[in-house]
Design a protein that fits this description.
The protein has 246 residues and is α+β, with helices and mostly antiparallel strands. Strands 3-4-2-5-7 form a five-stranded antiparallel β-sheet. Strands 1-8-6 form a three-stranded antiparallel β-sheet, with helices on one face. It has five helices and eight strands. Helix 3 runs antiparallel to helix 4. The longest helix is centred in the last third of the chain and has 26 residues.
């Protein structure tokens, strides 16, 4: 009889030890965790504003029979382009080289590959802070560099988007809160406080792409200014909110 009592006591102690070391969710599977009493919603807020700055991507591309001839042609044209940018009040620290490359160029014939020459590409990005001068800057740069100038794209943006981000953030929170409230009412529960907030942001300002400058270089006598439209810049804030409910 005593042996049986000791055995029962030992099993009881062992069982108690196992329970102490177990996850509370395993011990009490019928008690829901805080995470299971929550509503997850996504919210979005967008605000538009007028761009106040533009980044102009342009360069030169020269092909000649020799590397030196191609490099010299590209160097001369790019120097003229940079001088033109500076003459239009683009600060030196707002002009940055983006790419410089030299590649052999080949023709394919019945006899195989034949070296045609070499191409030198040299491109810069220039930050334009006065958008009213952008059209003149493009026209002057393409005129200075001649037929080997390439304008790749223009990216419009707002230099300090912080105020727009703050407005979009408020709208995103209100949007998420409205969704959570609707879900709570439809489910017959009471919405509590948010326990998790995650934010992501996105700024939309698509670049305007341009082809090679032969299209820009009209006769000076009848030359039209390059039309440039800055459009709108949109700042979007996306958030995820997790609410408790009762």
């Amino acid at each position: 009889m005593k042996r049986l009592e000791f055995l029962c006591l030992g099993l009881s102690l062992l069982f108690a030890t196992i329970l102490v070391g177990c996850d509370p969710q395993i011990i009490s599977p019928m008690v829901p965790s805080p995470e299971s009493r929550s509503i997850h919603v996504n919210g979005s807020g967008s605000v538009t504003g007028e761009p106040d700055i533009a980044t102009l991507y342009l360069g030169v591309s020269a092909e000649k029979e020799t590397v030196e001839a191609a490099r010299e042609a590209a160097a001369s044209a790019m120097t003229a382009v940079i001088d033109s940018l500076k003459a239009n009040d683009i600060a030196e620290n707002d002009i940055q080289t983006e790419n410089f490359s030299i590649y052999p160029q080949y023709d394919w014939t019945d006899e195989g590959r034949v070296l045609r020459g070499y191409r030198v590409n040299n491109s810069v990005r220039a930050k334009v802070r006065d958008l009213e001068t952008l059209s003149d800057i493009i026209d002057d740069a393409t005129g200075a560099g001649g037929d080997i100038v390439v304008v790749d794209s223009i990216q419009f943006m707002i230099e300090d988007p912080t105020p727009l981000q703050a407005q979009a953030r408020v709208l995103a929170v209100k949007n998420a809160e409205a969704k959570a409230q609707t879900l709570a009412e439809a489910s017959g529960v009471t919405l509590g406080k948010p326990i998790t907030i995650i934010e992501t942001s996105h700024a939309a300002g698509p670049p305007i792409a341009y082809a090679e400058t032969a299209e820009f270089a009209a006769d000076d006598g009848g030359r039209s200014a390059t039309p440039i439209q800055a459009g709108e810049f949109t700042v979007t804030i996306n958030i995820t909110l997790v609410y408790e409910f009762e």
